[in-house]
Write a structure and sequence with these properties.
Layout (H helix, E strand, L loop, with lengths): L12 E3 L2 E5 L2 H12 L4 H15 L9 E7 L6 E5 L9 H6 L18 H12 L4 H14 L1 E2 L2 H9 L1 H6 L2 H7 L11 E2 L2 H18 L5 H14 L1 H12 L2 E2 L5 E2 L5 H6 L3 E3 L2 E5 L2 E5 L7 H10 L12 H21 L6 H7 L2 H8 L41 E2 L5 E2 L5 E5 L4 E7 L46 E4 L3 E6 L6 H13 L5 H6 L3 E3 L15 E5 L4 H9 L3 E5 L8 E6 L4 E6 L7 E4 L1
Parallel strand pairs: 19-20
Antiparallel strand pairs: 1-22, 2-14, 2-23, 3-4, 3-15, 4-9, 5-6, 7-8, 10-11, 11-16, 12-13, 14-15, 16-17, 17-21, 18-19, 21-22
Length: 598
């Protein structure tokens, strides 16, 4: 498929002690450092995650959200849901009275209840071994003393500079220096966030009382976050600060302290299917995770040779299967979906009916399926959309008005005891809404994934989770466990599909699978405002052979050639229990993500 020689840009890592792979080298180093100091995989992931708030602020933040799959050694895997719901006053009628036809892509009206911090603290309490202060030490250090700011962060700040200067002054105060973005590589500090973390730690220790154990301190921190100074600061800022949203109007948000006080992160059972002797575990239909499972179920009937995604036939099959699964996502997925309906969507019988729709030519329509027991699909999705999508790269697309597509972080950790976690934190990006100055962060925009149409399965509903694109993965067999994932919005499960097909059907190693040329379809409405799409669209790295592109073009795919190393930010870690060998791999694209281990 590629014109490049099979020379890896990064080595396959092998060891027996532990490994951490993430979207930023500092977070990966922190994760391994925690393992070296005796922490387990869940301690390491939590410490790395708080550091990601600092070093990848354009991709995630404390005001955002989190989805993870936790796999404790000898225990049952569980999904960690740190996705907050819509606030109590986030009603369709309120937004339409504000003159809106869609939830904005930036601004506080798009904010769900922040769930990331409570999610990480819940993980630390129930699965970790470290105390709160030791975990937060790393993030406090980088926020207070500085970290070398990424070029991509600088680019994002530059893209929204005018918005900050003219409308979001609190953001300008934090992210601009004399009206200009920082310079790539210079040390950047966020001392307001450092003070927030230090105050959270100190108030939690005081509230828990002298001699309290680690769990009591963590619970006190969760209460302080949800009911104390953080919630109060958010409430005041949202109520007192009307501001420009991406739709061009000035609005106040609706999130308040009561919403934060009511929210708690939680664990729930994953959903899964078998594929090629491996069990693939995902979050439920409040996420897009089952899209990967539906796609694999459709493809399961094909031979390994037919699923070779280094051939035009394999690319065509993968793309057409993904279109069908994403059509079902938009027609049926949402918080509160009947589990029996999801079981039907994931069943071999339903997959067989969907498989029959794959023809020799590329589909250019959205085709949700129907099966006895399924409700009628959301009819608004059956119409062809206008305007091409711009989701053509692996990095986020940021507009001057602050709305973003495809932005997220990811971290995978596995330790010497066999504990594993795959986690995808996101939201609360520096460009999401105005910075809350005393806290050093802003709110997220996950509500943009809801619809102001009550008929939609992902309609805006108070107390209900917006359907998130965050989609970590765990893969298990009797003797192995793999944690993997990627940022990328609607592309997350598409790029993970390529990884799984290459490792489970073609025998690729993890690093080889990550580095192989990537592609994804844009032939379905995007999750991010304003939900544009390109019927028949296929984005593919331009390292592939011209003959393959010509073949796909002849099948009716609308080819969008992306940069040679531009799609996907995958990472993975794997343990083979039969040998004790741990492997880790990370994406070289952008020279930012790293895997470390020994």
């Amino acid at each position: 498929m590629t014109t490049d020689p099979p020379l890896l840009a990064r080595p396959n890592l092998h060891g027996t002690f532990g490994a951490c792979a993430s979207t930023h080298w500092i977070a990966s180093a922190v994760g391994l450092g925690v393992l070296e100091r005796g922490g387990n995989a869940f301690d390491a992931a939590t410490a790395a995650a708080f550091v990601l708030h600092v070093v990848e602020p354009h991709l995630n933040g404390p005001g955002g959200d989190l989805v993870a799959i936790v796999a404790p050694a000898g225990g049952e895997p569980a999904v960690l849901c740190g996705q907050g719901p819509a606030p109590a006053c986030a009603t369709i009628s309120h937004y339409t009275r504000e003159g809106l036809t869609a939830v904005p892509g930036s601004g506080a009206l798009a904010a769900a209840v922040p769930g990331a911090v409570d999610g990480w603290l819940l993980l630390l309490r129930d699965y970790g071994t470290w105390g709160l202060g030791d975990i937060l030490e790393y993030a406090i250090h980088y926020a207070e003393n500085g970290h070398p700011v990424l070029g991509r962060v600088v680019d994002v700040i530059a893209a929204v500079r005018d918005l900050f200067v003219d409308h979001w002054r609190t953001s300008a105060d934090l992210w601009l220096q004399h009206g200009a973005p920082p310079r790539t590589g210079e040390l950047f500090t966020n001392r307001s966030y450092a003070r927030t973390l230090r105050r959270l730690r100190d108030e939690a220790i005081l509230a828990a009382g002298r001699g309290a154990d680690r769990r009591a301190v963590i619970d006190a921190a969760r209460r302080t976050w949800a009911r104390g100074f953080v919630a109060q600061s958010i409430h005041r800022f949202v109520a007192d600060t009307p501001h420009l949203h991406s739709t061009g109007g000035v609005h106040r948000g609706v999130l308040d302290s009561v919403d934060l006080a009511r929210y708690q992160a939680h664990f729930e059972a994953p959903v899964s299917i078998e594929f090629r002797g491996h069990r693939i575990l995902k979050a439920g239909a409040w996420s897009q995770g089952p899209v990967l499972l539906q796609t694999l179920a459709i493809l399961d009937a094909y031979s390994n040779a037919e699923l070779d995604v280094d051939t035009a036939d394999g690319v065509h099959l993968a793309v057409e299967a993904m279109k069908l699964a994403f059509a079902d996502r938009d027609a049926y997925y949402g918080d509160g979906l009947n589990p029996q309906i999801l079981d039907t969507l994931l069943s071999p019988a339903y997959a067989a009916t969907r498989r029959q729709l794959i023809g020799k030519l590329a589909s250019v329509v959205v085709r949700p399926g129907h099966f006895p027991g399924l409700p009628a699909p959301f009819s608004a999705l059956l119409e062809r959309a206008d305007g091409p999508t711009s989701e053509a790269t692996g990095e986020p697309t940021v507009r001057p008005t602050g709305e973003v597509r495809g932005d997220t972080c990811h971290v995978d950790v596995i330790d010497r005891w066999g504990n594993a976690i795959s986690a995808t934190p996101s939201g609360g990006w520096l460009q999401s809404s105005p910075t809350i100055p005393e806290l050093g962060f802003c709110l997220g925009t996950r509500l943009q994934m809801t619809h102001l149409d009550a008929a939609s399965p992902s309609a805006l509903r108070p107390g209900m989770r917006p359907r998130t694109t965050l989609s970590p993965t765990i893969v298990t067999t009797t003797d192995t466990i793999t944690a993997l994932g990627t940022p990328g919005g609607d592309q997350q499960d598409q790029w993970q599909l390529l990884y799984l097909l290459r490792t489970l059907t073609a025998g690729y190693g993890a690093q080889e699978a990550i580095e192989a040329p990537a592609f994804h379809t844009t032939s379905f409405p995007g999750s991010f405002w304003p939900r544009t799409w390109e019927p028949g669209g296929l984005v593919i790295e331009n390292r592939v052979m011209p003959e393959l592109l010509a073949d796909l073009d002849g099948r009716g795919h609308l080819i969008n050639r992306s940069g040679a190393w531009s799609l996907g930010r995958l990472s993975s870690v794997r343990l083979d229990r039969s040998t004790g060998l741990i492997t880790a791999a990370a994406n070289p694209r952008g020279a930012q993500g790293y895997a470390v281990g020994r």
